[in-house]
Design goal:
Blueprint (H helix, E strand, L loop, with lengths): L1 E10 L7 E8 L2 E6 L1 H6 L5 E5 L4 E4 L1 E2 L5 H6 L4 E2 L6 H15 L7 E6 L12 H7 L5 E5 L4 E4 L1 H7 L11 E6 L2 E8 H7 L7 H17 L2 E9 L4 H10 L5 E6 L1 H10 L11 E9 L29 H14 L2 E6 L2 H16 L4 H4 L2 E4 L8 H7 L2 E4 L3 H13 L1 H5 L4 H6 L5 E2 L10 H10 L16 H7 L2 H6 L17 E4 L16 E6 L2 E5 L13
Parallel strand pairs: 1-4, 1-5, 6-13, 7-8, 8-9, 13-14, 14-15, 15-16, 16-17, 17-18, 18-19
Antiparallel strand pairs: 1-2, 2-3, 5-20, 9-10, 10-12, 11-12, 20-21, 21-22
Length: about 550
């Protein structure tokens, strides 16, 4: 059956034909788009008409960086978002143990606290968590994902003592030679992955909820932003179960990518049951709000401390060479400008050695403190900066404190990138924040912090540019520009229906626009107000 959309505003995201009056879908792809009469003439006898009723139709959004499994996992964890004190954290953990009837000895995991929002203005310690759960091993993850805290029982289970060697590029907090429970960067990631995972059936249900969540925000392509070897069996189960209905692009560390290529030989840079192995992922530094991002100049109030890198120059260059030799894309997490410099230097060296960077399309994830002086190198090397621009609202005031006004104003320099003709993408880094790309578009256009301060007005972009960052540019980042990102004949019918046209509302209203429907391959997978958003099922 053909599907015909009319009577609304259709934004194609194509510069040469930005708007249309009708769109025809056939067999999951766009068959025609343009003038209503011309498009209607191409419709078959059996056609379903969708009246937009003055609403807007756009290409569905692609999240250029997030963590799909972590989003699913949040449905299996204690939610610490919004906690304002250590006492709040303790109450949330106690309530979860009581409500879920967690037996003594079973692991309890929690995520989403932010020490910047706690009255104590510092991270909890093991004794705080011991008081909340004296009979359970507990780990809590910071909202950034770059640090967290274990209680005493958890440290004992993991064998962490005052003599435990700290992994390079990380910190194991100690006080008088005794672990405090706090860890950051490589240390936290290493011990966090040793925490036992939930049963498979629980994860499969959580993955379904995660897909519903993304779809409710108009997103049909998501990212597994760090595929570790331990996650490969979960994806094998997902594919065997046919549970994936959104497109998932995975980037792993060395071990994870190697294991995934063995497990999914047909998924290398092409979808198999909605799963695609995109390439490698590197972490080069930490978090600016956690003061672990690696900077060229010290943090505000410090004489020497600049954060730190997590890999040596040689290690980064080796991974660039490996990705190039294997025909893999490379994503590098770079928050601080020193980390950005390390990545750019490695790419520069590799290019001189003959690595085809144009074929690799290297991505700089977050690029928050990417210096304006570094942008010419970004353009010359063909690097795609993927800005975590929503940081401006969520942590802009914290950056003002940590970095000073000049550096804070330059965070996520999307405006400067646009002036140089550098195509960039935007992402949510979910579950760090909800996968709300319309909020992200608003952040890029408005650049207002929580306190109402305008952070770097010169780095604002217009609405068209912001929308391109989450549609056509994101599709290009994923090597999917022929299939996604715009409404044009032959492309997949991945669509989002909005209650208002983003290009026709005042900028301050952008984040209030509602996603009414989301379509994947010509099938509605979300409708606002439905209890189970179409359950990813084809309509009769």
């Amino acid at each position: 059956m053909d599907i015909l959309f009319t009577n609304g505003t259709i934004r194609t995201m194509e510069r040469d034909r930005p708007a249309a009056h009708a769109l025809l879908v056939r067999n999951g792809r766009i068959a025609a788009v343009g003038d209503r009469t011309a498009v209607e003439d191409q419709a078959g006898v059996d056609v379903r008409r969708v009246d937009l009723a003055g609403r807007a139709l756009l290409p569905a959004f692609l999240d250029a960086h997030s963590h799909f499994t972590a989003v699913a996992n949040q449905f299996l964890q204690v939610d610490l978002s919004g906690c304002g004190s250590w006492a709040d954290i303790q109450d949330r953990i106690r309530d979860y143990i009581r409500q879920e009837r967690i037996p003594a000895g079973q692991w309890v995991t929690a995520q989403g606290y932010d020490h910047n929002r706690l009255s104590e203005r510092r991270h909890p310690d093991r004794t705080c968590l011991d008081a909340a759960a004296p009979e359970n091993p507990v780990v809590i993850c910071h909202q950034s994902g770059h640090m967290g805290v274990f209680n005493t029982a958890a440290l004992e289970r993991l064998g962490v003592t005052g003599d435990t060697p700290c992994p390079a590029g990380g910190v194991i907090g100690q006080e008088n030679g005794v672990p405090t429970g706090y860890m950051e960067e490589n240390a936290f990631l290493e011990f966090q992955k040793r925490v036992p995972m939930m049963p498979l059936e629980a994860f499969l249900g959580a993955y379904r909820k995660a897909q519903d969540l993304y779809a409710s925000y108009g997103i049909t392509t998501v990212q597994e932003g760090l595929l570790r070897r331990e996650l490969v069996p979960l994806y094998q189960a997902l594919l065997a179960d046919g549970s994936l209905k959104l497109d998932v692009v995975a980037y792993g560390d060395e071990a994870g990518t190697t294991a995934a290529r063995q497990a999914f030989p047909d998924s290398f840079r092409q979808y198999q049951q909605h799963f695609k192995l995109g390439g490698y992922k590197l972490f080069l530094d930490g978090s600016p709000q956690g003061r672990t991002a690696w900077l060229r100049q010290p943090y505000q109030g410090e004489t020497a401390y600049r954060g730190y890198g997590t890999l040596t120059d040689a290690q980064v260059l080796d991974m660039v060479r490996r990705a190039g030799a294997e025909g893999m894309q490379l994503l590098a997490h770079c928050n601080g400008d020193a980390a950005c410099a390390q990545y750019l230097a490695a790419l520069e060296t590799a290019a001189r050695e003959g690595v085809d960077l144009a074929a690799m399309r290297p991505v700089m994830i977050h690029a928050q403190l990417l210096g304006r002086d570094q942008l010419p190198a970004v353009k010359r090397l063909g690097v795609i900066p993927s800005f975590f621009v929503a940081h401006v609202y969520h942590w802009g005031d914290i950056h003002w404190e940590n970095l000073g006004s000049d550096r804070a104003d330059g965070i996520s320099p999307a405006g400067s990138a646009a002036e140089l003709g550098i195509p960039c993408t935007f992402h949510t880094d979910a579950p760090v924040i909800p996968p709300d790309l319309l909020e992200t578009v608003w952040c890029a256009v408005d650049r207002t912090t929580r306190s109402g301060r305008c952070l770097g007005p010169e780095e604002r972009v217009d609405v068209q540019t912001a929308l391109e960052a989450v549609t056509v540019n994101a599709a290009y980042q994923y090597f999917e520009e022929r299939d996604k990102g715009a409404l044009a004949p032959g492309k997949r019918a991945d669509l989002v229906m909005l209650d208002r046209d983003p290009l026709a509302v005042p900028p301050e209203e952008l984040r209030d626009i509602q996603v009414l429907e989301t379509w994947k391959d010509g099938i509605p997978i979300f409708r606002r107000g439905e209890k189970n958003p179409c359950n990813f099922c084809r309509e009769d």
